[in-house]
Design a protein that fits this description.
heterodimer; A: about 675 residues; alpha+beta; Penicillin-binding protein 2a (Domain 2); five-stranded antiparallel sheet; B: about 375 residues; mainly alpha; three-stranded antiparallel sheet; about 70% helix
Chain lengths: ~675, ~375
Amino acid sequence: MDDPVRRASFTRRALLLGAGMAGTGTLLAGRMAYLSLFEGETYRLKAEGNRVQNRLVPPRRGWIVDRHGKPIALNRPDYRLELRPADISDAGSDLDATLIAIRQVIDIGPDDELRIRDDVATQPRFMPVVVRSGLSWPEFSACNVRLATVPGVEAVQSFSRHYPEGERMAHLIGYVGAPTPEQYRAEKNPLLIYPGYRIGKDGIERHEDRRLRGQAGASRVEVTARGELVRELGTRADKPGNTLKLTIDRDVQNYAARRLGDNSASVIVMDCQSGDVLAMVSMPAYDPNIFSTRVPARLWAALQQDDHTPLLNKSAMGLYPPGSTFKMVSTLAALEAGIDPDEAVLCTGSYRLGNNSWHCHARRGHGGVNMRRALPLSCDTYFYVMGRRVGVDAIAAMARRLGLGAEYPLPIPGQAGGIVPDKAWKQKRYGPDPKKGGWREGETLNAAIGQGYIITNPLQLAVMTARLASGKAVLPRLIDDGSTPDFPSLGIPDAHLAIVRQGMVDVVNAGYGTARAARSPVPDVLIAGKTGTAQVRRISMAERRRGVIRNEALPWKQRDHALFVAFAPAGAPRYAASVILEHGIAGGRYAAPIARDVLTYLFEPERALAVLPAVEAEAAERRAAAAVQDEAASIAAENRRLMPSWLKIDIKPPVFEVAEPDAPQPPREPE
Amino acid sequence: MDLLNGPWRRELGRLPWGVVVVITAIAGFGVAVLYSAGGGSLDPWALKHGVRFAILLIGALALAMLPPERWLALAWPIYATLLVALVGVELVGAVKGGSQRWLNLGFMEFQPSELMKLAIILALARFFQFVPKGFESRPDVLIGALVIILAPVGLVMLQPDLGTALAILFGGIVVMFLAGVRLWLFGAALAGVAALLPVAWSLLHDYQKNRVLIFLDPESDPRGAGYHITQSKIAIGSGGLSGKGFLQGTQSHLDYLPELHTDFAFATMAEEWGLLGGLVVIILYGLVLAWGIRTAIAAGSQFQRLLSLGLMATLFFYLAINMMMVMGLAPVVGIPLPLISWGGSSMMTVMILLGLVMGVARANRPHRD
């Protein structure tokens, strides 16, 4: 039955098949050897890369402290409760039972519960879900004690930025926030995409971000393919950011902010000798603690719409005409031009140039005024005459020497430089055509009293005052690096400075000065200063004939800015200050008392604190009134929104004149 | 009934005990691999694997006691039954993982396509046994053989199960080759298949197309299906010469390796035992295959020769495709590594296969006495 030929044929083919099998086997062995021997190193690295993950440990942000080491920005523990769905189901429990157990210890709102259930359903099961963050300490400890036995629930502690002074430091310090995708793309730092990591977004937090950040630590962990942590292989501790010491005095800053009440205003206090900025307040402001987490849309809209510009750092970015506070510059320019301080000018209340009249704030004039009386009286006519005589270029040169028009090396993003106009500036700004870019005589008159093109920011005015008081080219500084800077002299003769300083002393202390309200309550400390009331609207000839409308009768936006610069003690100047109330009506009446109180606080805090209750009560009253009005407006708006469209009629609410324009004008108070 | 009354000790002694030792070694190694894959625990795989092997080995030895002539008689009935079962699967089969492969018999779930891999060999060996020498390449014979092959292949493709269909096809073609069909016919068929490839491509399911495409370029989809091949190559490559050590595999224990206990058991093993472990497995299987070839050559009839070597070729097909797959030389088709991978159905198939070949070996062993 078995055919030998067939058998031989089969054997041949079987051996052929066997050879094929052997060949395949060799191929497989070769392939494996290639993978494990020649490519082995590569694959080992890949396997290691799979297995080991470097996890960042974000560094704690450096503190910001004031000149006495009191904290301004610090890290506060943030307690939250988390649950891990994987652990819950591993322990044979379920989410409902766990939530019931948690509810017996802390409240969970319906919104929170929806979010938790949503997260549990959508996230990978090993990812923790935040039950509630921002737990108070009693809640946190209650969770720790009473939820310790509930599987999958854990109370966690982390850190968040905290600003104990809130809005009083907001503009200066800034706030922190999550980095933007652009920042990450620019820097490629993995820390920037770490959940919950915050970087400086404004103010000093932003400018000094690198110094405050510190260095991230790392932990090498073994993870599964699903990212579950198996064990920790090793850690490198994080290096917290450096503590940043400022020259700011927290108490002075606080006091100044409180003293401002609800004004839209800026206060700056500087050390005349060292340039240390003791206070740099801009009010109103926002709460950086809210900004550092997330800003509710409603609050953001309200902040943006507020005409008191709470989002603008008025101290560094606000620009205002300096008004009469500029007259010290004109005085010094005149002295330098060799004008005799005793030369008198007759002030009749107005000064004619060509067809136009330039008015003095005193309608009936000051009579004969020499340099020593010109500053205390703030006589515009005197400065028209002298300004015209020395020319705008001399005034501008003196203004620059005193620090106006300059940006200072401060750790604040976005300082405004302001404008100190002269002939060259105008030509550059408006073109070489003499009709457009040529300097006109009348503009010199405006410049001499700090109006017209000239524009400064509050910080520059404070520096100007510090330079006048010390005679040195003082530069402001905000970061206390332990050194005491030594500034060169301004090169202005002492005799000239003495005349200006005496004038400023008389502004406050002489019987005819414009800032008698700012006289120091501290017996042996004299305050020297200068008022300024900067016009923000043009007063027409017709209005002048009818009588100028009183500031109080004008809408807030059209009222004059109130300015006051001061230094104290007058004999041996130590502190310089500038106060600007936006649309604050009159420098002498409204700005000067604030400067007085802030300077008093530096010498006798108790006495200064005594005036606060009245100020704060008044501000609170106004705020309450505004709140009532807002409420009514929002109810009206809501009603209107809910009203069917066919019922809506567009009737504009009637507008009533605030005051009779023809009413007899009371004599304007001296500034 | 000669078996029941026959001389037991003599017949047992004629069994190829050497190869039993080799396959026991392979399965034992499989237990060790599954012990590690289970995270250093006998549960859930290692212990069951061992017990299952022990039972099936006894079954295989029992099968080996049957004379090959019995199988010759049973070839057609077995083939016909399985073909009917395959049709039944199409009609009432259970759907698992997207394909319809299982038939519920009440007491167990039965996968007819698994056994069809063996039955095809049996049927073709039976078919060629009675084809006289020189008639193998005649068209009527060829058409008969092709019908026997393509009927189950078509039914399995419908399930759809590409891997098993290819295994059946491979087994059938190998038997035709061994039976002496002229070589130029194979060349012509190869050319025809190459011409028809585009048509076949359009008939494949999307997931099957994907598997092939990703095999051609695994890095194109590192997170998806290419992930399997990439991670498997990492596991094998990172093992190096001597491996990371027993229970020390990171790719497998940290779940980077998918299907670490079934299709990718070889990668799990290679990561911990390295190239040396891989070579041991290859050599052990080489011994089994060499024994199979020797058995076939020494067998007394064309049926026995074709049966034993056809079955060996099927076993080889399992081995080669699985190892090529884990090493990135073949697309991912769900074919486990015999005796090492977890899975009762495939182990049963392999043990029946070995039992049949051992039966042939026993029958042709010269009587000592």
